[in-house]
């Protein structure tokens, strides 16, 4: 019969051997080094590309003001700037235009359209370029960012039957990031530079009062509203 000391010594040797085996597996096993830090989403990050959006506003030198169609184009461009623009909204005036009076009026109209759309005057930056008597357009521009989804590998590239490690697949999280890149309203928000607008204190007080009175806090729906469940994934 073995002594207690012998049994304890044997258990100790087995434990040391097991620990050494784990350390060896962690260093030389099937676990990639990048799996030891970060998460699946970190390994499938969304990239950002800076772009410059611009609009050429055409001015007819035989007219005294911008055409309605050009004003509508400016209004749509300003709305896009409000949605995803970074930095100032730049308006470039053509100097020595074929109709200088029209060029000056066009810039004034563009600034008025921007202001009425919620763009403050201090957010507008002016510049000028030489037209040399030509019928050059007025140019509006702003800086923006575009979200670039990660390049998801094909599922066929992986052996899902390989259970040599308990790690997630390299493709895990890539589809989530792809969907986020497609849905995000303003990719510049990924930089974390935009300040959060203050909450509506009055609206919050109304909701709190409804809650205290035991009334529904959600928006009421009319009898004309309908809804259905999507069958896109069936």
Description:
The protein starts with a helix and ends in a 22-residue tail after the last helix. By secondary structure, the protein is of the alpha+beta class. It has helices spanning about 5-30, 70-85, 100-115, 175-185, 200-210, and strands at about 45-55, 85-95, 125-130, 140-150. Helix 2 (about 70-85) packs across helix 3 (about 100-115). The chain has a 4-stranded mixed β-sheet. It is built from 5 helices and 4 strands, in the order H-E-H-E-H-E-E-H-H. The longest helix is centred in the first third of the chain and has 25 residues, at about 5-30. Residues about 5-30 have low confidence and may be disordered.
Which key terms come to mind for this protein?
single chain, 234 residues, alpha+beta, four-stranded mixed beta sheet, 4 strands, Pilus_CpaD, lipoprotein
